Amino acid sequence: MKIAFFSAHKFERDAFDFANQKSDHQITFLDVSLQPTTAKLAQDHVAAVVFVNDQCNRETLTLLSQCGVKLLALRSAGFNHVDLSAAAELGMAVVRVPAYAPEGVAEYAVALVLTLNRQTHRAFARVREGNFSLEGLVGFNVFGKTVGLVGLGKIGKAAARIFGGFGCRVLAHDVDVDQSFAAGLGVELVALPQLFEQADIISLHVPLLPTTRHLVNETSLASMKRGVMLINTGRGALIDTPALIDALKSGQVGSAGLDVYEEEEGLFFADHSNEILQDDVLARLLTFSNVLVTSHQAFLTREALQGIATVTLQNISSFEQGRVENQVPSV
């Protein structure tokens, strides 16, 4: 099958080329992101493979359909960037990778916690400049702290195991509760307000839905412990960023580790080091010494890349054979 692969990066090409040895699809790797102005590059391709920051709105999907695209294959679990109603009207199937190396994302969330807490990123930069002072680098023991996990899916469960291993009290909130897992690991299932009020560290592991957009906002931030550490490896729009900035300025939030950002489209996954940053909100975030921003790399492990490539190509092969697997349901 002919596949138009948008927003292609070298690390993905290697993984897909390796996985495609078993499938032998014709993959056209495209450096550009998918948007209305680039959709025509999918002309005569049956499938389009896209990532989280590609534009899959009604206009783009209509143009893809006119090019002959019948399948939109997401190389991600999240699908909030896709107009599912438009896809259904166009008769375009939408498939995804439901889960890939959830432990890697959970480990990255914990890495953000440890880096922010012990400030190893700042210590590294200091020593490289010959500054061996320890002033300003005092952290706290993670052992014994209360960690609140918003979301107890595959990633949340992996995070619960890790934080449990640190000797933390682990609270969790999820609309789809796994009682047996929580009981087996000693995770306390609580209401979201209780989690916000009691946790020293809060880590977000839920998808972006209308009900979770700006889950962390002015009101919820005010209900948290003063000096709370906030970690987001989920989706940027889970947090109202201007509200977070106000909470950082007041000291209500003690530190924040953000691997995602609400307005990351057009910024993340590309080198803008020779340009002037036009996003004033992100520029303000980057001025805080107690904020660590990375560019959506929590998923970036060899195991995850191999899993994404394998499942994506399996989804496409199944479609070619008349089956639709891992379909995202229309709304």
SSE diagram, text form:
Blueprint: E1 2-5, H1 10-19, E2 26-29, E3 47-50, H2 58-66, E4 71-74, H3 84-89, E5 93-95, H4 102-118, H5 120-128, E6 146-150, H6 154-165, E7 169-173, H7 179-185, E8 188-189, H8 192-198, E9 201-204, H9 218-223, E10 228-232, H10 241-250, E11 253-258, H11 280-285, E12 291-293, H12 302-320
Parallel strand pairs: 1-2, 1-3, 3-4, 4-5, 6-7, 6-9, 7-8, 9-10, 10-11, 11-12
Q: Could you explain the architecture of this structure?
A:
By secondary structure, this protein is of the alpha/beta class. The chain has 2 domains: about 120 residues, Rossmann fold (3-Layer(aba) Sandwich), CATH 3.40.50; about 190 residues, Rossmann fold. Helix content is about 35%, strand content about 15%. The protein has 12 helices and 12 strands. The strands form 2 sheets. The protein has a 7-stranded parallel β-sheet with strand order 8-7-6-9-10-11-12, with helices on both faces. Strands 2-1-3-4-5 form a 5-stranded parallel β-sheet. Helix 1 crosses helix 12 and helix 4 crosses helix 6. The protein is globular, with a radius of gyration of 21 Å. The chain starts with a strand and ends in an 11-residue tail after the last helix. The model has no long low-confidence stretch (mean pLDDT about 95).
